[in-house]
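quick one, three chains, predict together pls
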Amino acid sequence: MEHIELFFKSIFIDNMVFATFLGMCSYLAVSKKVTTAVGLGAAVIFVMAITVPLNWLLDTYLLKDGALAWLGPEYAEYDLSFLSFIMFIATIATMVQLVEIIVEKFSPSLYNSLGIFLPLIAVNCAILGGSLFMQSREIQSLGLAFNYGVSSGIGWFLAILAIASIREKIRYSNVPPALRGLGITFIVTGLMAIGFMSFGGMLTGGDEEEVPAETTVVISVEQQNDIANNTKVIE
Amino acid sequence: MEKRTDKNSYTILFAVIMVFVVGASLAFLATSLKGKIDENKRLEKQQNILYAMGVNDNDEKSVAFISTDNVAKEFSTYITKQVIIQGDNVTEDDEAYLIDLKVESAKSKEASYQRRLPLFIGEKEGAPYYIVPMRGKGLWDAIWGYISLDKNLVVQGVFFDHKGETPGLGANINQRFFMDDFTGEHILNQKENFAGIAVSKSNIDPKNERKTDNAVDAIAGATITGDGIAAMIRKDLRMYMPYLQTLKN
Amino acid sequence: MGLLSKRDTKLITDPLADNNPITIQVLGICSALAITAELEASIVMSIAVLFVLGLGNVVISLMRNIIPSKIRIIVQLIVVATLVIIVDLVLKAFAYQLSKTLSVFVGLIITNCIIMGRFEAFALANGPWKSFLDGIGNSLGYAVILIIVGFFRELLGSGSLLGFPVLGDAIEKTGVYAYGYENNGFMLLAPMALITVGLIIWVQRNKSKALIED
């Protein structure tokens, strides 16, 4: 259940592109054609699926306050969290370089069309953002971290696939010349983001024990209004 | 001809040297500055706690703490007692404010661990203040705060801060226009049950005149951070309720 | 222009308009969206980027002949991350209040693709002086867009500029609010930043037709 919730939450509600606006650069620049977009999207899913769990291991067993306790009690004092940025980035950059080498070997056409943006996956903020969110949201287990990586990647993939399809179709529309290309993409993305905001209501409630507390609040507000009205009448 | 920098041996050598240099310089810097940074953080905690009970250098609009030179002295004057609540045990501890809420909350996930809850009891102009530290999650990263209550459990002041909320939106939780709204709010509802304080978008009370509705106005555009604040108050303050309820009676 | 040759001046002025990092090169968008709800935050971010990009470009340019091409991305990222973390640590120790204001931007700077983008595209192939100018020029171009977006979002969204309520008090209904004007809270949300940037692109490309995409 936890897994399913996290999965849908990361794809729709916390969508990397539409909710947190991470990974915009490559999203805007490599979305002219569906085929390239699919390639880049797949690369992002792949990189995130590997780096988020990897960084989770690093964070839990190396960086966190007291994470070195497994080495022995005398190491329990160490807090290496100031290194987390560097470590996360190094992991990501290494993985990206690996992906770059693999893609160059097996699909030169994809490699050419990705151009400067393959190295830029490394600074695709969505990927570092995924690792940092994993850290700050205190994801509990390796399985959940993997789930989070994959689903955030899928969310990004979905976003770039959608915008690429729209951009392919929009060529047949009569867009003002100065707005063609980048301009209309920005605006369409803005509109899509507004649309995605409606997913925010998908998982309402949250912790179950909170429900009674909230209902009492509602009642008390109503009572409050009644009291306020009555006092006005008396006055 | 292959360039010198393309050779594998060179690449590996470069990587090793770089890791060593960067690691060593960062570790050196971090350890040598650790004392100073920790000291800054400690003073900040004292400033925040005092701020929540209304001991600050605020003028009309600003958020100004007691200066770092005076804070230690003022802290010992105003904060008369610090206690740690652990289940039914209440022990006095002058270093309770150094307890790391993040560590406590992580430890308390094991069922056998009884979480330690620090509580600061202050006194200003003869009236007692009970200051509760809280910690929660905003949109991007951690948020935390202190809330001070009188013995009728009416809020006397709050302080919120954040690690990385969106500047201009969620980051405004540490601004006066948001924090001041909490002062005077009740955390109990009409039936005297714990209700917390909701951060509501549909409150329609911009001047915050209704103090007993358990809600304050949200910041436009910062829904998730606002929900985080409300959840933080509901969750962390609730843990103190068994103790705080005894004050009221 | 004794200090700057004509070509050097171009390095600075080009990114301001015709080769703007945000509207033309599509670099550094995430931060442009995230922090432009307030003018002040836009300005702080612009200054931070100016420092990091100017300095980082010089460092990378100095190292360009010894960086192994196979691991250049890692090296670039580590250089910039190290610089930023060092500054962050020093500020935390000696100017704590300032570091609190800036800490939000640390992560945004490290991942800002404008920095990596300029390293890749310019600093790796040019000398330190030129790279410095390129860094300054691009961060100024970045700043221009950030400040325009921040200006409109703060003015229309919260009716203030740099925190100063220029349009009157929305709660007390003074100034323009007395005539029924209301703040558009929607401007504060990130989608509106996208649309604002889109509109800026529209205006810009209308002025210089050469930039129009087919």
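The longest helix of chain B spans residues 8-52.
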